[in-house]
Amino acid sequence: MNRTHPFRPALLLATLALSAVGCTSSQTAAKPAATKPATVAPTGPVAISNRAMLLFDDAVKSFDAQKKAKAFDYPSLERKFKAAAEADQNLAEAEYNLGVIAERMGKPDEARAHYQAALTKKPSLRQASDNLAIMRQNSGDVAGAVALYQDVLARYPDDAGSRARLAEIYRQNNDHDKAMELSRAALMRDPQNTNALKVMIRSYLERKQLAMAKLVALRAVKLDATDPELHHAVGLILQKEGDTAGARLQFKSALEAKADYVPSHVALAQLALDAEDFPGAEEHLRRILQSDGKNAAAHVDLGIALKGQGQYDKAMQEYDEAEKLNPELGATYLNRGIILHKVKDAPERAVELYRKYVALAGGEVALNAESPVFGLMREAESIVQAKREAKAAEEQAKQMEALQVQQQAAMKAEEAKQKGQQPPAPNTAATPVSGDGTAPKATPAAATGAQPAAATPAGGPPAAPAQKNAAPADADEPADDLL
């Protein structure tokens, strides 16, 4: 079995897939997540009806129970918070939580409408402003997000959350000094703000200050051991330090905290592929595709894992799926070419795919001259040339054989001619047949009554002529011995 797999996509996700609050998919940049529904309870001078409060408390208890079971039924929660909101129009917190649920259900327009409604009912509900800013940041409207965060800080100077999120924006724009300043300011106001700590971890990692990144990450884990991002961050730091075993344990700890945490599944899949643990890699890659079935890079890596287990046709199916999702992903063509080259005995097609990979990578100038693809291409081209030469040699051998047969037939004919013999009949494979499929019949003698001439013995002396006046062969008659 050919177990080589040097051509995986370089990355399935960013080196440090930490978000400002929640997890991200393997194809997108880090994005903040919405605030949890249970963190916002009714407060303020406006009196809320007892019925609305009871309905709200029931909805929060349902959320807590589903969180503990790690199985959310968002439509059910939506109905409960909607009932609380309808019971009292002043219950802004119920409106806010409906926005959070809509966002988690993939309904951003509804989420924005609920957050705006919550702010209309209660302008001091800064969590709604935070989430609107987060949504703007996620959509790429960084300027709009900054304006909202600054508005929150103008109204709430001691707000740590907005400072941490502003710090993340500055970090993403490579202004690490401002990012660290805002992170420290957030921690002064809220020493347990893990979002600010995550910004610091990322900033230290990007500046290759591993010792400081590790120190902050371990501090953050002590504050919240249930946050998968923090375990993942420690794993990435250990990986950069060369401690693969320790990194693997941290990635597994992240999955214990959140079983569907995609970045840790990605990291473990990559470690498994590097160790040629193909069944283990397959397990993590399938979990990734459960969360994001359109992840073309994950389909390519799954193809590599299947190839490593000898399931070549299934691997080719994964490469086909990856090509449909992203035709510009060069690793698809490279890995498909390896199977055609090494397994399917189709080096001609493999060469075409290798060339396509090189073209997508920017050409030979962009690739390192030591890249293994060039060795594979030369090997496949040599196989193609050898096949052509072998075919040409085979055709030449057939022609020589036919020529020898003709020459031998000509020599035999010449020998027969010199001896006065009929030339040998051609060496036919079978007696010819007539058009009706039967053997030809003997030609009858002519109807003249003449007998056919006797055959002359081949090569014998001519028969003696009959004696003139020869007497009949009668024993009683005297022999006529006159000359």
From TrEMBL:
Pfam families: TPR_1 (PF00515), TPR_16 (PF13432), TPR_19 (PF14559)
Signal peptide: 1-29
Ranges annotated as biased composition (Acidic residues): 474-483
TPR repeat copies, ranges: 92-125, 160-193, 296-329
InterPro entries: TMTC_O-mannosyl-trnsfr (IPR052943), TPR-like_helical_dom_sf (IPR011990), TPR_rpt (IPR019734)
Compositionally biased spans, kind Low complexity: 419-458
The keyword Magnesium is assigned to this record: no
Keywords of this entry: Signal, TPR repeat
Keyword Transmembrane found: no
Protein name, UniProt field: Tetratricopeptide repeat protein
Organism: Corallococcus llansteffanensis
